[in-house]
Write a structure and sequence with these properties.
Shape: flat
Oligomer: single chain
Helix content: 40-55%
Order of helices and strands: HHEEEEHHHHHHHHHHEEEHHHHHEEHHH
Number of strands: 9
Number of helices: 20
Length: 471
DNA sequence: CTATGGCACGGATT
DNA sequence: AATCCGTGCCATAG
């Protein structure tokens, strides 16, 4: 059962639903591309770059209705506010503060990555390569990746493809290693290739990157191990090796808004779509949830089109009607997406406050279905909203949003602690007993599985580390 | 004989 | 309908 707020009182079309669904599924990076391509091919869609109300021209700092003229849109045409950070502030009691100003925490603009790279390259570049290198550096996205394949670059610059490849090769091997590759996978591969040592882990790591990248991102070590014919621990070590020594987002390592992958911070495989931080402006312990939007500015149906439509009494060419309809649909779907993500986060933060603040142990198991019912959407909607997105926690960890629905996380964390504090290595059976006393009922076999996931060696091999200290 | 990991099954989740 | 997860049974290593 769907319960959708339709702001302009129009009947919902199946197209609307379909598109809302597909937009929900996208991560920010993907959504950005989507918005850009939509803008490119639909003249009726307009992006107002500034954060200025298109009606009263005042500068705006909040999403939602314009506080000055208090109108949501021109006519009843929807407008969606695409601040780089849409913020909401949830305090302990779960109530929202609306006076939080997202613009107070603007990110410092990154320095020019291009000049930094060019300086290093200067010696190796032929004069005719220079222009090409410039072009390539200019077309990198925020993460330092090249969206277009070399063939396209070659055509755009009218250069031979061999030259393009040569320059790309050079660029990918100077300081932010793996720059100008097509994505995290290739970036990691280049970095691994250039790493001097690594031994056996390196071999496994190489295969992980080549053949099992998506599984690696999902941390399905057991699955990979099975298919590779290696033990889970080996795979786990290789994955650790990758995240300790390599950086999937080269442009973020030296500058930019991203966080550096830090030792002890596993899973830095995504740039966050959402961040949760402590409040700085309020001195209470409220949490600030920021939902990053892909582009900044207002997205709306171009008012000129709208006016023209009125003047013609709706008697427009099919093409124009099509454009206006499509633009309006797109904007509404985006609103829907933002709305859903907001609601989801609001609930998650309220429910899982303990987890966010105190750590894995306090995650309260919750299924997507429960959350769906609470919000009043179909459970598949939640699945889509949660998939493919990453959230940055106050402590700096960047984790997949689906982590909130990991039923076994708290138990695994408890097991980790039990092992850490054990004086003599405990067998799985003994761990089961301890857990049962705390009201956690699990089978012996399950403990073994969790141990494996966490990379804890069996009791036998954990033998005396003098004073019970494990590394 | 005991602790552990592999395989596979069933029920829950997506 | 497909996938994930906890668990039981069994072989094996120590």
């Amino acid at each position: 059962m769907f319960q959708i707020q339709d702001q302009s009182q129009r009947p919902l079309t199946t197209a609307h639903l379909a598109q809302t669904m597909s937009l929900l599924l996208l991560s920010n990076q993907e959504l950005k591309d989507k918005v850009i391509s939509e803008l490119a091919e639909n003249p009726a869609l307009e992006l107002v770059e500034e954060n200025v109300c298109p009606q009263c021209k005042k500068r705006l700092r909040q999403p939602g209705p314009c506080p000055v003229c208090s109108r949501k849109s021109e006519g009843d045409e929807p407008i969606v506010f695409l601040s780089p950070r849409v913020a909401q502030n949830t305090s302990r009691d779960g109530r929202r503060h609306d006076d939080f100003d997202p613009m107070d925490r603007e990110i410092v603009a990154p320095e020019s990555l291009a000049t930094f790279v060019l300086e290093q390259l200067a010696a190796d570049l032929e004069p005719e390569d220079r222009k090409l290198a410039l072009y390539i550096l200019a077309s990198l996205d925020d993460d330092g990746f090249l969206q277009d394949p070399p063939a396209i670059i070659a055509r755009m610059t009218r250069s031979p493809i061999t030259q393009v490849n040569r320059v790309l090769h050079l660029i990918s091997r100077v300081d932010p290693l793996g720059l100008a590759t097509s994505g995290p996978q290739q970036a990691l591969q280049v970095q691994l290739e250039l790493l001097p040592n690594g031994g056996q882990k390196r071999e496994i790591a190489k295969r992980l990157l080549e053949d099992h990248f998506s599984e690696l991102g999902r941390r399905e070590f057991d699955k990979i191990a099975a298919r590779l014919g290696v033990s889970v621990n080996r795979v786990r070590q290789a994955a650790e090796f990758i995240h300790d020594n390599l950086n999937p987002y080269p442009a973020r390592s030296s500058w930019g808004s991203g966080r550096q992958p830090q030792p002890g911070n596993p899973e830095v495989y995504h740039s966050p779509d959402i961040s949760i931080t402590h409040s700085t402006s309020h001195d209470d312990d409220s949490l600030v949830v920021e939902i990053f939007a892909p582009v900044s500015g207002w997205l709306r149906v171009n008012p000129l089109f709208k006016k023209y439509q009125e003047r013609q009494n709706g008697d427009l060419s099919e093409e124009w009607k099509e454009h206006i309809e499509r633009a309006s649909l797109f904007v509404k779907c985006l609103q829907q997406r933002n709305n859903t993500v907001c609601q989801v986060m609001e609930n998650l933060v309220a429910q899982q406050r303990e987890y966010i603040l105190k750590g894995d142990r306090y995650l309260r198991p919750m299924t997507r279905a429960e959350l769906a019912e609470k919000i009043g959407v179909h459970e598949s909607t939640i699945s889509r909203a949660v998939a493919q997105k990453a959230v940055a926690f106050p402590d700096g960890r960047i984790l997949p949003l689906s982590r909130f629905f990991d039923r076994s996380l708290s138990v695994r964390d408890r097991i980790k602690e039990i092992v850490r504090n054990e004086k003599r290595p405990l067998t799985d059976e003994q761990i089961v007993k301890i857990l049962r006393k705390e009201g956690i009922k699990v089978a012996r076999r399950t403990v073994a599985k969790y141990r494996s996931i966490e990379g804890i060696l069996p009791a036998r091999l954990r033998h005396r580390d003098s004073k019970g200290n494990h590394r």
